[in-house]
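Chapter summary example.
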Amino acid sequence: MPTVTPRDPDNLEALRDASDVLGLDALLSDDERATRDRVRAFVDAEIRPNIADWFDRAYFPAELAPEFGKLGVLGMHLDGYGCPGRSAVEYGLAALELEAGDSGLRTFVSVQGSLAMGSIHRWGSEEQKNEWLPRMAAGEVIGSFGLTEPSAGSDPSSMKTFARRDGDDWILNGSKRWIGLASIAQLAVVWAQTDDGVRGFIVPTDAPGFHTTVLEPKGSMRASIQTELHFDEVRLAASALLPEAKGLRGPFSALNEARYGIVWGALGAARDSYEAALRRSLAREQFGVPIASFQLTQQKLVNMVIELQKGALLALHIGRAKDAGTLTPTQISLGKLNNVREAIAIAREARTILGGDGVLLQHSPIRHAANLESVRTYEGTDEVHTLILGQHLTGIGAFS
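The structure predicted for these 400 residues follows.
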């Protein structure tokens, strides 16, 4: 056999070039690569050196919100009102690089930009857009998104939170659960039943009767904040109503935006896990040789790269469709279901290559594997996306 030279575990760029077996980098434009590289550099400088400590302490770095604004990733895909107005593919690449740092940090960008800002941008009045979006895009105001309830997760139509009219005002009562960021947010976009169906409201978090409870301790998404919201006779002015949002179409449109980001983001967690395993396998010796020289280790690495490359092709195809205006919710479900499921498998397999050291937080796969359990659950569980696809294939709804 020909003599070969093992790859240098410290030359990450060379390892990435070798791992791009299909040459997918060439499918990106110069602007797309520039966006990716800019966000990657931010993650390398601001997130990687600190994330193990943040995760261990269950600390969300809210002080980075203005830095995310300067980076241009808050409401990245929205136009006007101080928003960056970048393409869907650029936003996807940013989500991938952010989640390579940590799912919790990508989730912040998603909650802020896709859920809260996206709802105001699509369904709000001009006054609401001008009041909130520029400051949210700059990271000066943090928003949250209240849809899920203790007894209404996969079935939001069964929500019990209710807003009743009182003259020109609205009175809000009920609760929401698993709501990101609400304890540090200045506003919450809240969806509630009314006598006119489901409507959306911009609710100031300092309104009398608005209370938050942080959900902890958690074994996943520890560098993030999830809360329960409680509304006790919260009085809202008529101007709090999102005038264009009527029915579940409003929150579902926001969920599809968030799900799109997950299609890309999960690949970041998977890629980071794979790279940690690859570098470890090249650096660690057993029986006198790098463990990368063993057939079983190479099989694991190859299987990871195959799924990473397939997932990247899927994400890019979905992103191009979104930019072309042809993307369907069913296609997003396929992407979310596949890429998160494969990302979890990659993170778990990567941990095995790290051996016992793989349970230490100085190595990322165990953290990514834990985080991805949350990513797998929110914005539609595996079961929900499976049934969405099943209904598409058969024409039969199996949700009840």
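To summarize the output: The chain has a mean pLDDT of 96.
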